[in-house]
Specification:
about 325 residues, alpha/beta, Spore Coat Polysaccharide Biosynthesis Protein SpsA, Chain A, two-stranded antiparallel sheet, about 15% strand
């Protein structure tokens, strides 16, 4: 399997060399690195030129005439990739040396899977490992708690656990996701994962295959919480809709999450290539919403009646 790396850069001089070296030092060499620079004003382009001179057969570097920002810049980089498996890449992270080999082997053994994301380490500016829980731990937490893992429902109902920096997919899948929608707080990695999960062609690997850097200049983050039991339970509660503890406040929280996801889906329903997925999400959320309301009503009839009246007045926890 030949591989391409879609790397987007913008004023990334501080960590770019470390990332490029980690890509070039893989146990399975990549065949192509497509870089789209979004108008850097620091030494990013000089660094890229230096690597190009040493590896002219691997690097293809493109300079944007206008600033596209992250989502559309990745769309451009992906569209320029030529090989069978495409890896997304941020400019400030670090790849574990067997990342490419592990993921390509998985694709070879699982022909029905189009998109793969993985777990990863958290690091600070200096590259020190962080003691944290992350969104990527959700599948493992669910397994440990015997909670059903449905990636489509997790991503559509609760939020994305598939970070672009960890993601790879088959080139044949690109036609199903491009053009990327440009919607506030909705990114290309979530779009890709959701589309793949909708037809059961998404998989998440628990092996930690990259180091994700937290620093003040990054455009997207918020994936880590302190490594303690409270954070673990918060992550499980946020991504799980089963309300196992049957507390009234838990039902309120779940209904609020369903309402928020429903409104988000209404916005996305207007996007190209999303109509069929949107109908499925809408139907599933409506069923889940009524199910949780009925459970709450049966357990807390008086409180549920008061909450319903309050929500009507304040337009909270509603599907509209």
């Amino acid at each position: 399997m030949k591989t391409s790396v879609a790397l987007c850069t913008y004023n990334g001089e501080k960590f770019l060399r470390e990332q490029l070296d980690s890509i070039l030092n893989q146990t399975k060499a990549v065949d192509e690195i497509v870089v789209c620079d979004d108008g850097s004003t620091d030494s990013t382009l000089q660094i890229l030129e230096e690597y190009y001179q040493k590896n002219p057969d691997i690097f293809r570097i493109f300079k944007n005439e206008i600033n596209l920002r992250s989502v559309k810049n990745f769309e451009k980089a992906i569209s320029l990739c030529e090989n069978e498996i495409i890896f997304l890449c941020d400019q400030d992270d670090f790849w574990i040396e067997n990342k490419v080999e592990t993921i390509t082997n998985f694709f070879q053994k699982n022909p029905k899977i189009n998109v793969v994301a993985t777990n990863g380490f958290g690091i600070d500016d200096a590259g020190n490992l962080l003691e944290v829980h992350s969104l990527w731990d959700i599948p493992r937490f669910f397994q440990e708690e015997n909670i059903e893992i449905d990636y489509f429902k997790i991503i559509a109902f609760a939020g994305n656990i598939a970070t672009g920096a960890s993601m790879a997919f088959r080139k044949k899948f690109v036609k199903d996701v491009i053009p990327f929608p440009v919607i506030e707080e909705f990114h290309h990695d979530e779009w890709i994962a959701l589309n793949a999960a909708s037809n059961q062609s998404f998989e998440f690997l628990q092996e930690k295959l990259f180091k994700y850097r937290i620093h003040s200049q990054q455009q997207v983050g918020d994936v880590f919480l302190p490594k303690n039991d409270k954070s673990r339970q918060l992550l499980i509660q946020h991504f799980n809709f089963s309300v196992q503890d049957e507390k009234f406040k838990s039902f309120k929280f779940v209904l609020k999450r369903i309402s928020k996801s429903y409104k988000k889906n209404n916005i996305l329903s207007q996007e190209k290539n999303y109509e069929e997925i949107s109908r499925k999400i809408k139907k599933d959320l409506e069923i889940l919403y009524e199910e949780k309301k009925m459970q709450m009503k049966n357990l807390y009839p008086f409180k549920a009646r008061l909450l319903n009246l309050s929500d009507k007045i304040l337009n909270k926890r509603k599907l509209n």
